[in-house]
Predict the 3D structure of the following.
Amino acid sequence: MSAREYPDRPWVGIGLICLHGDDVLLVRRGRPPRIGEWSIPGGAQHLGETAEAAARRELREEAGIEVGPLALAACVDVVQRDDAGAVRFHYTIVDFAARWAAGAPTPGDDVTEARFFAPDELPALGLWSEAIRVIAEARRLLA
């Protein structure tokens, strides 16, 4: 099995942008990487698990939320190199978008908080630029 640091292959991460009206669900990370930061719910895809099943599982585990039909929103590559130029981390993140169907945000698994944010609250959160981009894309797809 490949290590996440200095891997021999990219790791597949799956995210799910959940919209409830105009609000978007975010979770606060409880473990590295990016501990304490708000982000789109998601995590590693398991062997033998479809991407859509992984998205639904991660959303359920991290926030206790169920969603309706999924739409593919974006694919983002994160490649970090060390000072010598070797690939230290490589994640390929597949983000889906869906509308809220059931559940109240309840932090679980590896997050400390889960809640819906209105669009005007997002700038104060210090989100990664790619998260902002894929949230916008999710809104466009689900409009």
